[in-house]
Amino acid sequence: MKPWREIAVPHEDVLKGTFQQAEFAADITRVHDGSAAAEYSDPVLFFDRTFITEGMRLLLESVAQRLAGRGGDPVIQLQTAFGGGKTHTMLAVMHMAGGKADASTLRGIPEILDRVGVMTLPKARIAVLDGIRLSPSQPRKVDGHEIRTLWGELAWQLGGAEAYAKVAEADRTGTSPGKDVLAGLLRDAAPVVILIDELVAYIRQFEAGKTLAGGSFDSNLTFVQALTEAMKAVPNGVLLASLPESEQEAGGGQGVAALKALEHYFGRVQAVWKTVGKEEAFEIVRRRLFAEIRDRAAANESCRAFADYYVANAGELPSETQEANYYDRMTRAYPIHPEVFERLYSDWSSLPNFQRTRGVLKLMAKVINRLWQSNNQDALLMPGSLPLAESTVISDLTTYLPTGWDPVIDHDVDGESSEPAEIEQKEPKFGANQACRRITRTIFLGSAPSGPNRMAQGLETERVMLGCLQPGYAPHLFKDAMGRLETRLTYLNKGNGRWWLDIKPNLRREMEERKKRIDDAQVIETVRDTLQRSLGPSVFSSVHYFTPAADVPDEWNIRLVVLPIAQPWSRSGPNAAKEAADAILKRRGEQPRLHQNRLLFLAAEADQVMHLKDVVRQQLAWRSIENDAKDLRLTLDNQQQRQATQNREQASSTVQRLVRETFKWLVAPMQTVNKNSELSPMEWEAFPLNPASQAFGRELDRVVAENELVIDEWAPTHLNQLLKRWYWKDGVQEVAAVDVWQNSCNYLYFPRLLKSTVIQTTIAAGAASTDFFGLAYGKDGDDYRGFTLGKTTSPLMDALLLIEPGHAKTYEERTRAPTVESESAPATSGPTSTSAAGGTTGTPMAPVAGAASTSTPGTLTHYFGSIELDPVKGALQYSTIAQEILHLFTRNPGAIVRIKVDIEAELATGFDADTVRAVKENARTLSLKPSEFD
Predict the structure, then answer these.
(1) Residues 287 and 204 in one domain
(2) pTM to 2 decimal places
């Protein structure tokens, strides 16, 4: 899209800033006598810059018919709001009927004449009665005559001294001439056009019962009545008179009385005149401010881009933008966005002194000039584009507002030192497109006028977005900016989904004062509480929030240590989090920490800490305001109470989000081993968490699992490799499983196992293979107690030895009973025997030393024993039983040993759900059958 300035060309006076305020207020008398600016006094130039609205067209058609003697309305009353186009319409009639320029040269007039079938419009005599220029108490001296009254002025303009002579006595005495006299004057001057402007302003100067040079209150009303009746008797004469729309514009009691009387008299004969519509105002303003649209195709392309953008973001914008005719509205208003006209004509025109068309022209001329000078690159002139920091622009608006808006604009709306500009400077994502200032300009334009006709205060969020967004802008960025402004501005209010500015400070100032009194201890406590609520279940058995090193236990469980917010992780410069984590990892108070591989750390992002602390202080300040209001320590109205609650809720929600965004680094100590088994220095590695994930605990688990920071399932081959690297060397052939587990808890270069059952499950999975390790439950000299290799088992960690697989195979071969072929048995047949493993050898078993191959009478062949184990010391008691009893059986290769464990547990009040779930899970892992609760 091209910027508007490359497509639309302003008029020279707008472009150069040489326009004058008075030029927008057309003076009908000066136009009549030829002393007005050319754009008003030159008929051709006037119609070049005038958009003929439907109401003006109908009026001009009626006037043309009347002057041509073909019907039409004899009296037309123009009654609209201040600045509604009354005077401009009179000028159009004057130029069309005055004959100073041929009708064919007047833009839009030939079409009007064709519509009513008038080939040639006769030149009419024009009389102008200007209630502002004429004075009831000061006669106007012309060529030796003193003209005192309206009827004297009318007669002089229609026929000079000759016509004046017919009403000279009535003019001298201040009494109205009769209807017949006036009708005669009009017939003599016909075709004739009488234009009466500001009639109420003239008549209200007469005090009741008092006569001035211009007559009296009653005589002037009588004249008006007689004139309107006389016009009906002149087939080619027409009267246009303007009256104010409201009593407030009439001014004072006498003005209101005059207005009511005139409305009565004109109401008997007047024709209805359709006022300027809002959509027509688009073209009026554009025609006056812009000389041409240089490239209509490019303008339409920009409007189409906006329309398509609005459809693509329908949920963010008012429903009207989804209608097909909204594109047409944009093309008619181009390069001004329709929302600018909507706000000015709907909101600002409701103010008593704001002139609809004239006020808009004055404002937009200055806006266009300032934006042109500043090289504005917007595609359209939008509410968010208005340069409200410019005194020449804002003064045109604050004139119509109550006092007190200057500090609002300076602090909360626009300007380099304003709060929105400061936010944009600190946060480039907002500053790139002036998101904050575009929002506050839009809110000001739509909320500053608070007239009696406003149904609801403020602008809806969707309409604020409409005033700001252009194709290419991200709506979510502007919503973020609105949230930021809500927490920072002093005069901005929000309620029921609407935004408005007010000259009364909101509770923001009170909040800011309280925020200063909140100390760091309160902030830290709030952050800790928010973190605890956010974390939820995770792989960590214990989480320590901002805990000193001495209070972090040195135990076997996996623990997450959340580092204090004052010690954040920084990717550049000093890294306080690394130093704090290093101190906790190495020492627990005065003692060195042994189980270093059981700790991981959660650290804050350094760039986010200040923002988080600021929003937490806001949350606490809003909470204190809300509490004080409830306890009647602070008096708030209903709106302020709602504001305090909404802001507290908004701040709380923001704190929850920012805590996730701030504590985003999972920090782990790392130590690697090279091929030569040489250890690297300890390093710290930070893993980012996704703050958008729904569950913080699950996000921690995901990062832990994906990066293998904690291992909950371990393959036997990995255990085998660990054993070969660190234990089975230099003549060592076995290692206690407990030692491996404990070393994994201590050394950073070992895998970080979730708990001891992980290695226990790994041993159980690898026991069935002869490739990984052999197992035993102790050693007497060179003999292993409870030795197994390649057999499925459920190992018990307390006394378990892991034996190098080659050594285990050699040991198994050495201790296996020799088998020889019986010399007395037939070579082709004989009994088979069952091996200790339950298989068949296919050959006779040789006698085993210390045991008979078959039982003989009196031999003891079966043993059974039972004992109740203490539930706390059971593991130690079982280890003793295994060494002192089971070993005696298992050292006999032919012995079959069966061990059964019966567990019974009772609790009168019933086991809690966590215990039941954990027991069932562990029993399933350990293959306990049966395993049931009842």
Answers:
(1) no
(2) 0.55
